[in-house]
């Protein structure tokens, strides 16, 4: 029983998988720490131990297997965890893992700002050539029309919060169909996906109070299921937690 337990503990540090279970995470952390260390400030003995603990072994090499298939000693454990520098390195590693996770989970094009469309041709090209998975929200406005400035400001905020949605704006007079977008129907919102109009709202500010903000527009669009699930700002939360420590 003791032999089996000992073998299990020793196997904890075998394998070269990356980001695969506890073994992979431990090895990735050690490799990350070694690469992030300043070569001039780290004692050679410390670098060598970290290198031995992070380098993948050749399973056909008996000597290599014996070198890496061993339990972590108390001295090695303390070597990694005892200094404040190690703590900071672990935070950097955690942040990098979060960034990798977000990159893998976030698919499709990303925008993050409001596109100003100058002509009707540019408007049509945006609708027809954008990827089919992309939701496009267009604000048709005109200077001096009540609510248009506030809606443009709301778009700026929402574009940052929903970078996978393409937010655009265009003056009614530039659409080539100005007679269809008189001041009576502005501001107008048009929502497209896959080249098709899926929703349109004329005089949309009538749905809000006289003074409205990005959250009001967000709630309105969510009522109709026009926005995807909002991204969780895990990276910002991680940074805030680190600042308070």
UniProtKB/TrEMBL annotation:
Protein localization: Cell projection, Cilium, Photoreceptor outer segment; Cytoplasm, Cytosol; Nucleus; Photoreceptor inner segment
Subunit structure: Interacts with CRX. Forms a complex with the beta and gamma subunits of the GTP-binding protein, transducin.
Gene Ontology biological process: regulation of G protein-coupled receptor signaling pathway; visual perception
PANTHER family for the chain: PHOSDUCIN (PTHR46052:SF3), PHOSDUCIN-LIKE PROTEIN (PTHR46052)
Organism of derivation: Ailuropoda melanoleuca (Giant panda)
Record's keyword annotation contains Cell cycle: no
Stated name of the protein: Phosducin
Family per record: Belongs to the phosducin family.
First and last residue of the signal peptide: none
Pfam families xrefs: Phosducin
Domain Phosducin: start-end pairs: 1-241
Keyword tags: Cell projection, Cilium, Cytoplasm, Nucleus, Phosphoprotein, Sensory transduction, Vision
Segments of this protein annotated with the region Disordered: 1-66
Biological role: Inhibits the transcriptional activation activity of the cone-rod homeobox CRX. May participate in the regulation of visual phototransduction or in the integration of photoreceptor metabolism.
CDD domains, per the entry: Phd_like_Phd
């Amino acid at each position: 029983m003791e032999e089996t337990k000992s073998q299990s503990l020793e196997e904890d540090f075998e394998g070269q998988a990356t980001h695969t279970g506890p073994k992979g995470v431990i090895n990735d952390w050690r490799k990350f720490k070694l690469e992030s260390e300043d070569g001039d400030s780290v004692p050679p003995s410390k670098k060598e131990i970290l290198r031995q603990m992070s380098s993948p072994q050749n399973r056909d090499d008996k000597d290599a297997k014996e070198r890496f298939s061993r339990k972590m000693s108390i001295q090695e454990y303390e070597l990694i965890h005892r200094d404040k520098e190690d703590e900071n390195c672990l935070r950097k590693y955690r942040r990098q893992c979060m960034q990798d996770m977000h990159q893998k989970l976030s698919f499709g094009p990303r925008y993050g700002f409001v596109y100003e469309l100058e002509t009707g041709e540019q408007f049509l090209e945006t609708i027809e050539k954008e990827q089919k998975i992309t939701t496009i929200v267009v604000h048709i406005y005109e200077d001096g029309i009540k609510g248009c400035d506030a809606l443009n400001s709301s778009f700026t905020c929402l574009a940052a919060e929903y970078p996978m949605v393409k937010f655009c704006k265009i003056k009614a007079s530039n659409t080539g169909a100005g007679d269809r977008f008189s001041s009576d129907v502005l501001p107008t919102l048009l929502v497209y996906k896959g080249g098709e109009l899926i929703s349109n709202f004329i005089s949309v500010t009538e749905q809000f109070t006289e003074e409205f903000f990005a959250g009001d527009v967000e709630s309105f669009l969510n009522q109709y299921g026009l926005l995807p699930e909002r991204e969780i700002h895990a990276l910002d939360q991680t940074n805030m937690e680190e600042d308070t420590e």
